[in-house]
Amino acid sequence: MSRSILHVSLTELAAQLAAKQVTSREVTLAALARIEATDGAIGAFLRVTPERALAQADAADARAARGERKGPLDGVPVGLKDIFVTKGVETTAGSRILEGFVPPYSGTAVERIEGAGAVVLGKLNMDEFAMGSSNENSAYGPCRNPWDLARTPGGSSGGSAAAVAARQCFGALGTDTGGSIREPAAFCGIVGLKPTYGRVSRYGVIAFASSLDQVGPMGRSVADCAAMLQVIAGHDPRDMTSSTRPVDDYSARLEEGAAGLRIGVPREWFQGGLDAGTEARVREALAAYERMGAKLVEISLPHQKYGVAAYYIIAPAEASSNLARYDGVRYGLRVKGSGLKDTYAKTRARGFGAEPKRRIMLGTYALSSGYYDAYYLRAQKVRTLVRRDFDEAFASCDVIAGPVTPDVAFPLGERVDDPLRMYLADVFTITCNLAALPGLSIPCGLHPQKGLPVGLQLIGRPFDEATLFRAARAFEREAAPLPPPAGLS
Amino acid sequence: MSLSLDEVRRIAVLARLELSPEEEQLFAGQLSAILDYVEQLEALDVSGVEPMTHALAAGDAAPLRDDEVRPSLPIGEVLANAPEREETYFKVPRIIE
């Protein structure tokens, strides 16, 4: 049982739990053993919480024995990116400045997934404050890609993607500000969804860029992600940017196929900068959609090329404001200085790593007196133009499809000294955040030469996650499934 | 666009970050490169374009809730993570000399 059960999908495990073929305690123990055996090499978990997990597993088993299973997540072991404030469990967002912070409450997404009976195995590695595309900005050491331990799992939700790919857990929650769910999902060969801005509450999610951050599911199948989103989506009175729109039934239209779908293919995503092997796999996926009866429509996103530039004004500006709270007064690190201001400056100097410092500096500059109009205001106007591109494109298509990243997972260390080059890993994912749209990453095969996973990105209309799931599921059914990662037994 | 060391120091003061001389040098170069890249936005005509100040369309935003007293976290739990505390307060270094 112990290894094979860890290879089934979340939804398949749910069926086995419901049929009492396996208990939550058994599967939780198997997952904990797998973490113990493999995580020294991967580094997906920042901390594992076995006692808490087993208590949740026993509670799930007791519910199952009484015939009171709550739903598909009940008794299923999952992981949480360490950006989710979790009551009684140290939460650091990958930063030294929050080392030892034990939150007195849980965020809404955590409450909801635990409320649905999920078993939380622990907290997952990430780039510090979700700033990064390789997980190398974690203050607690990098995470490695289960497909090739010398390469990045992507970031910032690198630990979440690696843990799901390595069969350490059945699903995970991540966050995505510029591609932080979709890029690691693509690099690790799993499915990841960034929902529409406002679909999932951000209450209790450590803030990076508040107008861009969004919580989403990461799993080994489309149905798994749909099941997780079903539980975490919906209005939350504690987050006024969470939408009051009713939540769709994400499993209802999952099997409707791709026939009749109009799939927009943005010309700009295939012009230069896209690796040939990645393009080949993405083109094959588009051809598969045509075979399934979808219609490909060429579209244009003329402001695509300005996305990264606009993002690197807006996100650091918001970050510089959000990260002002780390001042050594209420929680986290304090380094004593000669007075209060000096204490602030010394605490932040020692507590923040290079990337948060860089972005705080950039954002402070962009918002400083005399520069606001030239940088922040202009970037916000470009954001309007980016959104308009999508609105116009969706007049002629239902879903937009293309690559997630310009290339497959890159070697660790390759880009750490070149922040701008690192930022360009997000060139295809960033506009989706700027436009506040839902975007999904699904594996579309292995790179013909490099043998590493390639991701297909699907972007939908606002709050139309159901169509994204339907389109992704159609492809998943059609495509050959990926083998388990080669880097691990 | 080239940021001088003096400008880097001025921003660091605003951001309440104590930087080492090495960091000042590093950030002057890296931030200049990023600002060079961002300069391409100046090529765009944005006249008459409204800034996107909200990520959520007006119809999707939640209505403001009533302003009423509700229970919050117990003071002891809130203070538990403070580096220094005294009675029911966060303790900070002297502000007024």
What would you say this structure looks like, in words?
The complex is a heterodimer of chains A (489) and B (97). By secondary structure, chain A is of the alpha/beta class. Chain A has helices at residues 4-7, 10-18, 24-42, 50-65, 108-115, 158-165, 182-188, 222-232, 276-291, 307-322, 340-351, 354-367, 373-393, 419-423, 430-434, 465-478; strands spanning 45-48, 77-81, 119-124, 171-176, 191-194, 214-219, 262-266, 295-299, 399-403, 439-446, 453-460. In chain A, 38% of the residues lie in helices and 13% in strands. In chain A, strands 1-3-2-4-6-5-10-11-9-7-8 form an 11-stranded mixed sheet, with helices on both faces. In chain A, helix 3 (24-42) runs antiparallel to helix 4 (50-65) and helix 10 packs across helix 12. Chain A is globular. The two termini of chain A are 16 Å apart. Chain B is mainly alpha-helical. Chain B contains 3 helices and 2 strands. Chain B has helices at 5-14, 21-38, 75-79, and strands at 85-86, 89-90. Chain B has a two-stranded antiparallel sheet. In chain B, helix 1 (5-14) crosses helix 2. Chain B starts with a helix and ends in a 7-residue tail after the last strand. The model of chain B has no long low-confidence stretch (mean pLDDT 92). Chains A and B meet through helix 10, helix 11, helix 12, helix 13 and helix 14 of A and helix 1 and helix 2 of B.
Provide a quick synopsis of the model.
The complex is a heterodimer of chains A (489) and B (97). With 489 residues, chain A is of the alpha/beta class.
Binned, the helix content of chain A reads: 25-40%
Going across the biggest sheet of chain B, name each strand in turn. Answer: 1-2
Helices and strands of chain A: which structural class?
A: alpha/beta
* C-alpha Rg of chain A (nearest Å): 21 Å
What is the overall pLDDT average of chain B?
A: 92
Task: Describe the protein's topology.
The complex is a heterodimer of chains A (about 500) and B (about 100).
Chain A: H1 4-7, H2 10-18, H3 24-42, E1 45-48, H4 50-65, E2 77-81, H5 108-115, E3 119-124, H6 158-165, E4 171-176, H7 182-188, E5 191-194, E6 214-219, H8 222-232, E7 262-266, H9 276-291, E8 295-299, H10 307-322, H11 340-351, H12 354-367, H13 373-393, E9 399-403, H14 419-423, H15 430-434, E10 439-446, E11 453-460, H16 465-478
Parallel strand pairs in A: 2-3, 2-4, 7-8, 7-9
Antiparallel strand pairs in A: 1-3, 4-6, 5-6, 5-10, 9-11, 10-11
Chain B: H1 5-14, H2 21-38, H3 75-79, E1 85-86, E2 89-90
Antiparallel strand pairs in B: 1-2
